[in-house]
Structure to design on (154 residues):
């Protein structure tokens, strides 16, 4: 079994992540490798319950974590994966955007973008140019807008 501390990097920087370190309940790598991209989750630190009273001063705040799935990010990743698999002429983007995507994805054009950089710009393109034209995109944008307005009332 590989050891996390020997080489924590599992994926090449230019490819879609294809594996990740398995984590235990506290978010610490176990040494096991999972053969897929890690889903987007976030850990919410929560102060641990006091188990007993002590007279010593507390030097650290003991925290437990609650893991929550980031459903919007996971849904967008899924939609983006499906979008990337269709032929570029069916992407539903402008001519200029197609030329930029072809340039950024060209392995002969340097310097190459890391996958995370390409994914970020593709996501922005998809949210602005493609999502407003597709049912799944419209539904996602409407949900995001409603949640934004609920979280930030005027």
């Amino acid at each position: 079994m590989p050891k996390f501390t020997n080489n924590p990097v599992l994926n090449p920087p230019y490819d879609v992540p294809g594996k990740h370190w398995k984590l235990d309940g506290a978010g610490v790598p176990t040494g096991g490798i999972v053969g897929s991209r890690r889903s987007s989750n976030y850990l919410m630190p929560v102060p641990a319950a006091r188990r007993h009273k002590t007279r010593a001063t507390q030097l650290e705040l003991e925290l437990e974590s609650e893991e929550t799935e980031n459903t919007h990010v996971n849904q967008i990743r899924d939609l983006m994966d499906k979008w990337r698999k269709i032929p570029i002429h069916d992407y539903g983007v402008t001519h200029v955007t197609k030329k930029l995507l072809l340039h950024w994805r060209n392995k002969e054009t340097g310097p190459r973008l890391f996958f995370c950089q390409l994914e970020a710009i593709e996501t922005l393109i998809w949210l602005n140019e493609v999502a407003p034209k597709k049912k799944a995109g419209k539904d996602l944008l409407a949900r995001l807008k409603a949640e934004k307005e609920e979280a930030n009332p005027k």
Remarks:
- The longest strand covers residues 41-47.
- Residues 104 and 113 are 7 Å apart (CA to CA).
- DSSP finds four helices and four strands in the chain.
- The mean pLDDT is 87.
